[in-house]
Structure formats: structure tokens, C-alpha cells
């Protein structure tokens, strides 16, 4: 059963209950279902990710759009619905959400859109494959993923395998540093993972082997009302590495050149290159993609459980937070007051009383409201006379 809640989101009963009980919830994107993987692998992977989250003590919340309605916690039948090619689901980034809603479209949410919607629903952890970043020719194309902008302004922890290696990893890390995005590698080394490969030549600012420590970092950031997100970069397990890094890099270079030649631009670039890399590696890169998705779902679930068990103040920037318990103030009835004397007011009042005075003004209400009566330039006897009227 689905129930509509604030912000126009439809949150599943299971997710609503978990949030209410402050249990671990993990957001999952749906672009991997609609655009990232072929059928039936996409549906099988989506179900596998949800099962892994449950097995590790958390509740999965796959986010997507059906007929223009935003769903947080898609059912299996709904996942199959948006995965169907005949549904013509569109790729929905953060900026596209209102358009998809207005046009009543089916949509798969990107990292940026999923972060945004997860935060609206009150979900603090999001597990995905890899985040978008700065493209390799960004100095000419200015192609920088909206994922990075959303990370700079949305307080959600994103568990991923680093930046997709088809991008410029170094420039992406520099961009995140400039925009205040926290980056922690979950592992022994600070070497930032590159999606298909567990290590790159670039270093993250921090690393930690302890999920408890990472949970503490997130907790302290929220206690300071920091509005930025955090990247928890998890290297792909060595046994699932698709091929030699050189082979992967050569495949990427070839795919990038083909994309330029065919004038493939904007949000169509990444799906095209990933598909071509999979073709060139004869399916090995897709197997790695699925393995890292499952690894990140497992880590994300454990992290969300740790965070759910911690007592922490809600961030003021969070759309979902408990109402403050403000003690009721005892309001005392004010005594009636009459102000007598000269003063300056921002208005001029005229009266039929005391016409012989040259500068007299009277503002008067009925006797039952005499606490709000003001007399200007009246003598003591004149005031008594007025009060008796």
C-alpha cells in the first residue's frame, strides 16, 4: 500500500514505517534499471540489490517516477513496469523532476535526482554504482555532472565505487573539494577508486576501514547542520575486477572517440560509453558493474543501520524532523491602561470633543476597550468628562 505524503512524494508503507521507527533505510536509484543495464539483467539486479539491503538489516527504497508520480520504495511490480522498454521511461536528473511530473512520465532517477528525493523523504544513505563527475574534455564542453552540484547542497551520504572511470577523476576530486563535498575511501588506502578498478592515481583526503568511524563523521557533520553530502567511496572487491586496468582504459578511450565522432552529448554520453566498454570487454565490465552495485548496497545497508542506532540532533536543513517541544507560556491578562499627555503619532485624529482646543486629538474606543484609549493634550477635568461619556 502506498500513501501520499508531504512534498508530493508517494512513500511506501514499509519505508514510512521504517523512517517512523528510526530504522535503517537505503535509497536506491532507478536509472540503472531504465538506462544502465539491459533486460532482464536490469530487473534481476534491482531485485538483488533490494534483497541484499534487507539481508543486512535495512529497508530498501528504490526511487522512481510512474505516470509523473514520485515513488519512494517501488514494489517489484513497479520496478518491472518502469523497466519495460514499452514504458519509454526517461532519464530524470534533479532539474527534470517537475517536467516529468507535469507530463506524467515514467522516469528513472539519476544520482542527483535520487539524492534530492531521498533527502525530501528523510533518507540519509543512498547506495549506487558510481557518481557522475567532470568529463574528460570538460575544458571544451563544460560537461560536469549535476551529481556533483547536488552533492554540494544535499546532506545525504552516497555509497559508491568512486567516479565512473570514463570521467576525469582528478578534476572531479578537485571540483568536490572546491564545493565542500566530503570524500572518504572505505578501505586501507586513500587511493580513490575508479568504478571498474579499485584504485586510481588520485588520492582522497581521508580513508577509514571502520564503518563505525564513517558513521561518526556523518553524525558530526549533521550536528553542525552542514548542508553538503558525503561520498563514501568503496573500491570494487578485487575478485570482481573485470580486466587489467590498461584494457579497461583502452576500451574507454575508444568509446570516448566514438561518442565524439557520432556527436553524442549531454546525458546520453555515459550510457553510450558504458555500453561500448561492455561490448569491447565482451561483457566482463557489466559483471563488474553488477558486483560493485551489490557491494555498495551491502555497505550502505550496514552504514544506515549504524546511523539509525545513533542518537543525534536533526539537522535544521532536513525536510523531515521532529517538532520541537516548546513549553506553553502562561499569558496574563493585561490591566486597562489610560495614557494621558502629549505625544507624537503617525496619524491625525479628529473629534467633536473639545473644539475650543487648537491642537486636540482624541482616539477613543467604546468603554469596554478602554485599555486602548489615548488622549492627547487634555486637561485632567476634560479627561474625566470624556471617560464618563
Automatic annotation (TrEMBL):
This is Pseudouridine-5'-phosphate glycosidase. GO terms for molecular function: hydrolase activity, acting on glycosyl bonds; metal ion binding; pseudouridylate synthase activity. One of its GO terms (cellular component) is cytoplasm. SUPFAM superfamilies: Indigoidine synthase A-like. It comes from the Eukaryota. Pfam families: Indigoidine_A. It comes from Steinernema glaseri. The keyword Metal-binding applies.
Amino acid at each position: 500500500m502506498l500513501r501520499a505524503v508531504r512534498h508530493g512524494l508517494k512513500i511506501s508503507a514499509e519505508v514510512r514505517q521504517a523512517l517512523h521507527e528510526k530504522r535503517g533505510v537505503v535509497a536506491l536509484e532507478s536509472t540503472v534499471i531504465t538506462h544502465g543495464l539491459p533486460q532482464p539483467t536490469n530487473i534481476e539486479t534491482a531485485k538483488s540489490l533490494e534483497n541484499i539491503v534487507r539481508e543486512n538489516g535495512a529497508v530498501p527504497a528504490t526511487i522512481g517516477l510512474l505516470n509523473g508520480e514520485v515513488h519512494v520504495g517501488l514494489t517489484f511490480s513497479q520496478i518491472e513496469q518502469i523497466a519495460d522498454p514499452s514504458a519509454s521511461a526517461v532519464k530524470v536528473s534533479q532539474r527534470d523532476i517537475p517536467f516529468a511530473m507535469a507530463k506524467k512520465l515514467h522516469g528513472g532517477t539519476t544520482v542527483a535526482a535520487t539524492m534530492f528525493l531521498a533527502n525530501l523523504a528523510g533518507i540519509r544513505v543512498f547506495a549506487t554504482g558510481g557518481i557522475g563527475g567532470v568529463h574528460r574534455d570538460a575544458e571544451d564542453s563544460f560537461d560536469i555532472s549535476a551529481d556533483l552540484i547536488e552533492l554540494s547542497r544535499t546532506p545525504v551520504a552516497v555509497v559508491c565505487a568512486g567516479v565512473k572511470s570514463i570521467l576525469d577523476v582528478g578534476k572531479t576530486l578537485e571540483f568536490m573539494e572546491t564545493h565542500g563535498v566530503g570524500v572518504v575511501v572505505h578501505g586501507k588506502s586513500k587511493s580513490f577508486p575508479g568504478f571498474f578498478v579499485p584504485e586510481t592515481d588520485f588520492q582522497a583526503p581521508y580513508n577509514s576501514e571502520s564503518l563505525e568511524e564513517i558513521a561518526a563523521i556523518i553524525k558530526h557533520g549533521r550536528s553542525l547542520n552542514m548542508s553538503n553530502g558525503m561520498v563514501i567511496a568503496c573500491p570494487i572487491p578485487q575478485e570482481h575486477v573485470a580486466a587489467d586496468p590498461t584494457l579497461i582504459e583502452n576500451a574507454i578511450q575508444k568509446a570516448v572517440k566514438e561518442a565524439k565522432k557520432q556527436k553524442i552529448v549531454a546525458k546520453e554520453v555515459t550510457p553510450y560509453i558504458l555500453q561500448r566498454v561492455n561490448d569491447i570487454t565482451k561483457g566482463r565490465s557489466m559483471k563488474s558493474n553488477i558486483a560493485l552495485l551489490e557491494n555498495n548496497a551491502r555497505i550502505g545497508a550496514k552504514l544506515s543501520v549504524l546511523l539509525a542506532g545513533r542518537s543525534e540532533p536533526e539537522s535544521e536543513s532536513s525536510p523531515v524532523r521532529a517538532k520541537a517541544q516548546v513549553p506553553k507560556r502562561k499569558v496574563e491578562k493585561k490591566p486597562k491602561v489610560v495614557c494621558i499627555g502629549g505625544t507624537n503619532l503617525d496619524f491625525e485624529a479628529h473629534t467633536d470633543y473639545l473644539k475650543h482646543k487648537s491642537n486636540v486629538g482624541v482616539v477613543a474606543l467604546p468603554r469596554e476597550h478602554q485599555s486602548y484609549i489615548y488622549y492627547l493634550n487634555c486637561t485632567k477635568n476634560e479627561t474625566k468628562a470624556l471617560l464618563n461619556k
